[in-house]
């Protein structure tokens, strides 16, 4: 089980397997960082996926999937948020914000 924990240490988003005609949820708005706290706004009933990018050139990593609209962060880099509806259809990403 330790090997599995190492292989699957980051959370992941379950793929949307519904019909492509389904509308994605609205993307999160107003992302900002204040005192090492990332905050954003989202539609009620949707979960949020927080992505971290060490550099804009590289692929992001899922930090968490949450019902909340804020997260304490400490790593310098770039962050963005998407939303998931109940069928796991993912929204477009929010604007990126940077922790310097």
Tell me what you see in this structure.
By secondary structure, the chain is mainly beta. It has one domain (2-99): Immunoglobulins (Immunoglobulin-like), CATH 2.60.40.10. The chain has 1 helix and 7 strands. The chain has one helix spanning 2-7; strands at 29-34, 37-41, 47-53, 61-66, 70-72, 77-84, 97-99. The chain has a 4-stranded antiparallel beta sheet with strand order 4-3-6-7, with no helix packed on it. Strands 1-2-5 form a 3-stranded antiparallel beta sheet, with no helix packed on it. A hairpin with a 7-residue loop joins β3 and β4 (61-66). The longest helix is centred in the first third of the chain and has 6 residues, at 2-7. It starts with a helix and ends with a strand. The model has no long low-confidence stretch (mean pLDDT 89).
Which fold name is given in CATH as the topology? Answer: Immunoglobulin-like
> What is the CATH class name?
Mainly Beta
Mean pLDDT: 89
Q: Give the class from helix and strand content and strand pairing.
A: mainly beta
Query: Per the principal axes of the C-alpha atoms, what is the gross shape?
Result: globular
Poorly predicted residue ranges? none
Counting DSSP H or I runs of 4 or more residues, the number of helices is 1
Give me the oligomer status.
single chain
Rg over CA atoms, rounded to whole Å, is 14 Å
Number of domains: 1
Beta-strand proportion: 35-45%
Number of strands: 7
Helical coverage, percent range: under 10%
Give helix and strand order, one letter per element, not per position. Answer: HEEEEEEE
Write the CATH homologous superfamily: Immunoglobulins
Strand arrangement, largest sheet?
Answer: 4-3-6-7
Q: What distance lies between the first and last C-alpha atoms, to the nearest angstrom?
A: 36 Å
Largest sheet: 4 strands, antiparallel
Provide the CATH architecture: Sandwich
